[in-house]
Structure formats: C-alpha cells, structure tokens
Amino acid sequence: MSEAFLDVRDLRVQFPTEDGVVSAVDGVDFSVEKGKTLAIVGESGSGKSVTAQAIMGLINRKSAKMTGEVYLDGEELVGARPEQVRSLRGKRMAMIFQDPLSSLHPFYTIGKQLAEAVLVHQKVSKQEALGQARDMLARVGIPNPERRIKDYPHNLSGGMRQRVMIAMALLNSPEMLIADEPTTALDVTVQAQIIELLNDLQSEFGTAIVLITHDLGVVADMADDVVVMYGGRVVERGAVEDIYYRPEMPYTWGLLGSVPRMDTDRGERLEPIPGQPPSLIRLPTGCVFRPRCPYHELVPGNRCDTDRPALDAVTPEHSVRCHLEPAQRREIASERLAARGGDVLGGGAGGDGLGATRTATATMAAPVQTEQATTTTPPTPVPADQPTQEDQQ
Amino acid sequence: MGAYIVRRLVAMVLMLIALSMIVFLIFNALPADPARLTCGKSCSPQIIEANRHRLGLDKPLVNQYSEFVTGIFVGRTYGSGTATFDCHVPCLGYSFRRGEQVTDLLWNRFPVTGQLALGGFILWIVAGVSSGIVAALRRGKWQDRAIMGFSLIGYSFPSFFIGLLLVFFIQIKWALIGFDGYVPLYEDPVGWFKGFILPWTSLALISAAFYARLTRNQMLETLGEDYIRTARSKGLRERTVIGKHALRAGLTPIVTAAGLDLATLLGGAVITERIFNLNGIGNLAIGSVLDSDLPVITGTVLLAATFVIVANLVVDILYAVIDPRVRLT
C-alpha cells in the first residue's frame, strides 16, 4: 500500500440539493500502483464518475462538499489549494472522458486543443507544442497527423476522436490516467483497438490507470484490480481474478450474471438485477443493496435493514461489504458459477473464463487491424486522404 | 463562400427593390397630396397642378416608379424648360420641402447617427457582456443579483424615459453638461464627447441590460458543457477556460443580436436623436413623415433596410467564422 501512486481514503462527495443532500460518493477507499490498472465498475449513478472527477479536482467546490483524502504520489489533493491541483491536472494526472464529441471544443482545431495542453505545463514555443501534438497523434494511431491537427472535432470519426482524447491526456506523460468509460460511445471493433492502445501505452509509460466502466468485458481485458461500487460505496474490492472467480457480494453476482455470453444457449435468459439503483438522497439505513438483494432473508435478525455492513477483508487483497456469512457467500457463489457453466463471466465450460474473454477480444480486434492495413475499411469512416475541410473559395 | 456572398447580395438587391415598391404604394394610398404640400398657404389650384406636373406626380404610378429607379442609376432632371432641377446620381429623389436632394440630406445627417450608434454600441457591448460574465461566474451571489436586478430595471424602462431622466438630472438640475449639442470631433474633441456622452449612455443602458442577461445565460449554459470540463482537466487556468473556451462557445447568439441591433441603430435612433436634439437620420425620418415628404421617407427607409440586410449577411458570415461547423452554402 505504501508504494501506491494514487491512494484514495474515505472520499466523500455530497451535493446539497433542494430535495436533500445527495451523497454521490460515500466513503470510498482504494489505491493504484504505477503500471497497474484499477477498474471501477457499477451501474449508472453508483458514483463512479463523481469519484473520478473528485480525484481530478473537477468537482465544483462551491456546489459540493468534499471530504476525505486523495494522495497522488504522497501529495494530498482534497485539502490542497485549487491552483495546486490545477497545476497537477493534465501533467501528473490526466483524464479521458466518455463522450469524445461533446468533450472536445467544437470551435477549435484538434492541433490547437492539444497544443494548449502542452503550453500550460511546458515552457515551449507554439510550434514545438504543435509538434508534440502531432507526434502524440501518430503515437495513438491516427493516420496523417500533419493534416489532422488542422481538423475540427466534427471532421473526425468517433474512434478518431477518442484517440484524440487519449492523445490529449497523454501529452505531458501523466503518471496517472483516469479513463471514464473510454469505450462506451464506440462500436465494438473500435473499442478493442482503444483498449489495446491503452494497454500498450501503459506498458510503455508505466502509467497507473483508473478505468471507469460498466463493461465487464473491458474490465477483463485491462484491469489488475477491481472496485465494485454501488450507491456511492465500495461494495467489493479485489484482484480481477477474485471478482470474476470468487465474487462474494450479491451485487457483484448480479453484475456478472447480467453479462451476455456467446457460448450459452439462446434460450437461456440473462438475469437482470431486479429493481432500480437507489436514490442517493435517502439511502437505506442498512445495506444499500438490501432492497434489490435476493439473499437478505438468509441474514438473521434483519441486520441488512438496520446495520450498515463494513468492508471486511476476505483475504488481504479481497474485501466485501455483506452481512452474509463467508461460508454462505461461497456456497451461493459456487452455485451460481455452476449455473453459468463453470465460471461467472463465461468463456468455456469450466475453463479459464477470464483468459477466454481476453482472447475473444483479441481475436476480434485482429482481423480489423489486418483489414485496415490492406484496404480502407468501414470501421474508420473518415479515410485519411479524404479532404475534410471544404475548400474555401 | 464567394458564391454564397454573391447570392446573398443579389437577394439583398431584390429585397430593396420590393421594399421601395411597397413604400411607393403605401405612400400613394395615403390621403396626403404631395403637390399640395409644395406650396404655402396662398396656393391656387393652378400652381398646384403646375407643381404636380413638374414633379411628375401626374404620371401613372408605374412611370413614377421607373423614373425613380432610373434616377438612382443615371440621375434625373425635374421640371422642363427654364425651371429645372438636376438631381445627380445616385438620385433617390428631390425634397422640394427642404430644397435638397435626398442623398445629400442622408449624407449630411449620417455622420451624427453613425457616431451616436457606434459609440452607444461599443459602450453597451462592453458593459453588457462583461457584467453578464461576472453575473454568470458569481451566480447566486450578490454580484449576480445586483447585476440582474439592475438590468431588469434598465430593461423595463422605455428609452425615452431614461433619456429624459438623464436630460433632467445631468443637464438641467445638476447642470453637469450644457446643451451645446453636436460638435464635430475634429473641431472640439471635448465638446464632441460632451455632446455624445448622454445619448450614448441612454442608448447603452437599455441594451446593456439585454446583453447582460443574454451573456449570463449563454455563459451558464456553456460552462456546463463537457468540453469545459475537458479544458479544466488539461490544467488550463480558470481565466483561459472562461475567456477562451466558454465565452467563444457562447458568443454566437450575442454576435447575432449585436449585429442586428447595430444595424437598426445606424438606420436612425429616432427617440434618442429627438430627445438629445441630434440631427441624424432618425430625426430626418420623423420630420419627413410629419411633412409627408415622400422622397425623404423612401430614402430613409431604404437606407435603414440596407443596413439591416447587410448586417444579416455579415452576421451569417461571422457565424461561419466563429463556428467551423457552419458551412455557408
């Protein structure tokens, strides 16, 4: 824990509203080491994105209350002056956003938006900043970067825009990168390319990555550790293998059970988690997941309604927030695993499910890339040689 | 782009032609007889008829109109024999009432209106946009409330009321500024400024209120955009985030409104010119309407219309300059 590059302790973010205080993030702890990837998974409204923005100092402190500690390489950020956090943003920590079209300024060229990020943090000339922007675009696999820096975001395809966002985040070689649903807005083939790109860049730069997603396939492809969030709290935390093979929290079981798989019968139905995510204004007094949990009756004495479960360690790396007895949890988990044909996520009968997903994505990505190398293909709607700006008379 | 501008200019000429026809028709539908107005109290029907003939008012309306159009491009001569008036190109008509050619009248009056409009415009844009930005950044704080409250007051007062208040307090009661009126800038810069400061202020107060509200709303909207968050995540200074990213994105409606407002004003600030006794286009227009002076009315209407149409074109071009997604086709 001591060498963790990013260390988040008891982070809380509260937004006062007319209806009451919204506790978007309610005591979140986790840490990430350099070169490692931590995935934060959970439904919409579970507090994933707010956590990310809180770490980056992007929460408006006038409209939200933020407590707890965030250490970036030992430097505390929650209590730091905004100016100090600003100087770290984009330099030591950077963020990739979900929707690249709305996240890029529509009125400025790609080159200008990238160079701007260089110029704030480095004392270089505009020309040099543009040069760095160009090099980084080439690095993230954008063909013809010389032309692209003169383009506007609307001239690019979705995948290209996300690459631009990644390039923008990587410009000052940040040591920590937060990717907030980096592949959600993209189609599957492009998703695979982006994931591969992030993995490559991580092994090259040794970046610590916080990956926020609800796509468990992406998690299997990228993450070392996983934090499962529900109702603004961490409900389970562990290595990716723990979460996929030995999940202990009913919510995690539900998440894994609702992933569609290629190898199951069409007739077999997905198991959605019943009910709605909780309103963050009046959270249940006991366990936040209690209203949707099919197993709460197994806990004696209504403790799920009255006591908030603590985040208990199962193993030193694996913690879970649940009142069920460990033996009960293991039993239910193995039943559910068996029902899903050997492992929770899927892959092969009884086989290495995690590995299978990884290869599945890899093989899916491979043909796309070979195709791209030979011909101009549909996955990249804007071919490099197409004039994108109307010639001005 | 070039083709677009040419097309718009052609459309503009067509609109001006249509407009001049409408003005002609409306005027002829009015009961006032321009020939009767050419001579004073002791006027015999013979003289009226003679003048009517001299002005070409006895001809069919179509001929009158074609003569008017010819006059613009080649000039025209009124009357016949020894008593003739030459009206040189571009001839928008001749005001017998004022004994001057319409274009000369407009030409002489325009500087006053132009300076009034431009000065007021600069004042209100600067005041309105900057206070709008401040209000947006201090949303809900006392600065926001003060600016919005003040702008609501400014917005709800009619311009003649604010103008009269300024005249009453500053010129009459406290006598801070005299009644010297318009002095050309090159003759006496201080006097020029004194002559214009009140009319500028009265124009600016009302419009600044509108622009403060518009800017505030625009800023609040763009400050919530994803790309503003991106700009912050790059570590840009707040000043850059607001000045460069948010303001630029919120600028389009402000530019539209500003362009059209300036154009309207250049066509004559009727009330302000009247209150502060500035002899500009607005005063000319009012006078000519009261006098039923057709050529002058036509002239001022066409001038005002030209400004508005040109401003529309300029605004559309600026749109494309500000927002690269806009293609002019």
Key traits:
heterodimer; A: about 400 residues; alpha/beta; eight-stranded mixed beta sheet; four-stranded antiparallel beta sheet; 14 helices; 12 strands; disordered C terminus; B: about 325 residues; mainly alpha; two-stranded antiparallel ribbon; 13 helices; 4 strands; about 75% helix; globular
What do these coordinates show?
The complex is a heterodimer of chains A (393) and B (329). With 393 residues, chain A is of the alpha/beta class. Helix content of chain A is 36%, strand content 19%. In chain A, strands 6-7-8-3-9-10-12-11 form an eight-stranded mixed sheet, sandwiched between helices. Chain A has a four-stranded antiparallel sheet with strand order 2-1-4-5. In chain A, a hairpin with a 2-residue loop joins strand 1 and strand 2. Mean pLDDT of chain A is 82; it is low at 343-353 and 355-393. With 329 residues, chain B is mostly helical. In chain B, helix 5 crosses helix 8, helix 9 (226-233) crosses helix 10 (238-266) and helix 10 packs antiparallel against helix 13 (294-322). The termini of chain B are close together. The relative contact order of chain B is 0.13. Chain A binds chain B through residues 53, 56, 58, 86-91, 94-95, 97, 99, 102-109, 116-117, 120-121, 152, 154, 165, 168-169, 390, 392-393, and chain B through 1-3, 225-227, 229-238, 240, 245, 248-249, 322-325, 327.
